[in-house]
Design goal:
Strand order of the largest sheet: 6-9-12-5-13
Helix content: 25-40%
Number of helices: 12
Number of strands: 13
Order of helices and strands: EEEEHHEHEHEEHEHEEEHEHHHHH
Strand content: 15-25%
């Protein structure tokens, strides 16, 4: 059996690349890695150990209930595969992406998809350089990640309009290249370049991924966490220290997940992100009011609001 163990402590920089007086270095120890994968991790750590953009390296912190989720994602990236993280909203897909960045100590650029996403937001844009009085190209996250051999994270990829994404086909297949539509330059990715994308299937505003696009990814399901794993996450990620309250919030989460699976409430109600926010609020207000602000008021359907309120009242009254 493989077992991931990871702890934090990484040098971080602010957006001006100035060293912040907080050192954190992320070390990931995973037993029984295949030798080529272990070598790839070591190579990338060395490659980016002195990079100026270390502030782009994720902090880690994802705790999988099923260790295969993290193991398989790291394995796929080390083999040069694109990874698609599929799971309900708030299940920790972005946190997992940051942890993958931390595993390799590899900077990661992000694209947040929406219906307004266009080529400029992904590839870059032209602008007039004030000092040179000439038009210059400002690279976007895709070009930056490719030219530096960094990771590229495409969040909520199925929120983008289907006609926007084909420009990435060459980036995502064996060619690992793109013709910049604004300059005509052919950009070829460095060997360490990797792509992680996230998807919320069936969520409002999303569209099914084109099969040709989906076939360019290794798909990894990221389920909600629960039990002791969720309790550890709440203790680590939230400011709440009351163990009894944390256990009650974990029980609330399990009840909400059951209702989601039964089709009684939407996935948004069982978001781990929303649960962490609720725990933070519970430091300064009664738990039921914290649940109202952190979970219930985010829901549009009155029946769902009532269902969550009833569950909460049985646990916190």
């Amino acid at each position: 059996m493989f077992q991931p163990f990871y702890g934090e402590s990484l040098s971080m920089y602010d957006k001006d690349s100035r060293l912040i007086d907080v050192e954190r270095e992320i070390n990931v120890f995973i037993n029984e890695w295949p030798a080529p994968v272990e070598q790839k991790i070591a190579e990338r750590k060395e490659q980016f150990s002195h990079a100026e953009d270390q502030w782009l390296i994720g902090k880690g912190g994802y705790e999988p209930e099923d260790e295969a989720v993290l193991f398989d994602a790291v394995l796929a990236l080390s083999l040069g595969k694109n990874v698609l993280l599929k799971g309900p909203t708030g299940s920790g897909k972005t946190k997992l992406a940051e942890t993958l960045s931390a595993v390799f100590s590899q900077p990661m650029h992000s694209i947040n998809c929406s219906v307004d996403l266009d080529a400029e937001a992904m590839i870059g844009y032209k602008t007039i350089a004030e000092r040179k009085h000439a038009i210059e190209f400002v690279p976007g996250p895709v070009v930056k990640a490719m030219t530096h051999g960094h990771l590229l994270y495409i969040d909520e990829i199925n929120m983008a309009k289907p006609e926007t994404l084909p420009i990435l086909n060459g980036v995502l297949d064996y060619r690992r290249m793109i013709t910049n539509p604004f300059t005509g330059e052919v950009v070829t990715a460095k060997p360490s370049f990797g792509v992680i994308a996230a998807i919320n299937e069936g969520y409002v505003g999303t569209v099914p991924l084109n099969e040709a696009l989906k076939n360019r990814f290794i798909v990894i399901d990221v389920p909600y966490i629960g039990g002791e794993t969720l309790i550890r996450v709440l203790k680590t990620e939230s400011q709440l220290a009351d163990e009894k309250l944390i256990e009650r919030f974990a029980a609330l989460s399990q009840d909400l997940i059951t209702q989601v699976k039964n089709g009684q409430i939407s996935e948004e109600a069982a978001s781990i992100r929303a649960l962490i926010d609720t725990c933070d609020l519970a430091l300064f207000m009664p738990p039921l009011r914290a649940i109202q602000r952190g979970i219930i008021d985010k829901l549009e359907d009155e029946r769902e609001q009532a269902a969550v309120k009833n569950i909460a009242e049985t646990l916190f009254e």
